[in-house]
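User: Quick sanity check before I run a bigger batch. Here is a single chain. Can you write out its predicted 3D structure?
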Amino acid sequence: SEEDMRKAYEEVSALQVKVALLRERENQLKAKRHELELSHLSMVKTVEKAEKLVTQVGVAMSYLTSSLQNIWEEIEKLQQQQQVGFAIIRAQEEERRRIARGIHDGPAQSLANVVLRAEYCEQLLDKKPELVKEELRGLKEFARANLEDIRKIIFDLRPMDLDDLGLIPAVQRYAMDFEIKHQIPVEVSVIGDDTGRYNSPMEVALFRIIQEALTNIHKHSQASQVRLIIEISPLNISIMINDNGVGFNVKEPLNDECFGLRGMREWAAFLRGTIKIKSSPGAGTTINVRIPVEEEVRG
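Assistant: Done. Predicted structure follows.
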């Protein structure tokens, strides 16, 4: 009856409003969580820099009675640390822009589509009510698919496996998802004790280096195979990422599209590690990362 249809329409409208409100709340919480993660990393870096500054000031005071040259060396080190800090800030801002673009191109447009389809359902109620049920079924499937996209965005922001299980399981899952999504096989090998945990900033930085490397492979390399080797020792963590793609000339200066390589170098510098990139046109690319492990970074 018309009364039943009116009630059904009102219930659907109310549910649509609730879904929209819940999604808006989810987006707000997601953005807040990302801000907290970045703030946490920034605060950890600030504390480390403050501790280093105190040490360097003490060293400089002792050097005042010995060698002026040593003082200048310490000043240069502080300047390098400041440059790394600026580089990390740039990386954070670029990550925010990337997330904003992802939300705008994904969930935001999808929600607009939901609104349009809901309005179409309203029109069908007046003209062809027999088609409303089928359209609502399609709308529900569309909303479910977009919910999965939002979950993927949340995983990219902060993989739950990284907090719950640690670096190695998080990397293994990311590699598996990468392989399924982009149809590029990723062979992951772990050498050494993979059960240990490290402090959150170190695990996040190592994960981001691997994430950036795989993203670059997908975007630029045209590779059909990727090897990822993680070697864990008491003093170092070494990461080797190799692809059989088109390669590039490492001697050429990086342009604005090579932000991923810059990001990896900045993360490695943040961990006081080293990163070496070997590549040439037509010969694929190999990235070697070596990060020192200090006792206090172990979880």
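The mean pLDDT is 80.

User: Great, the batch can go ahead then.
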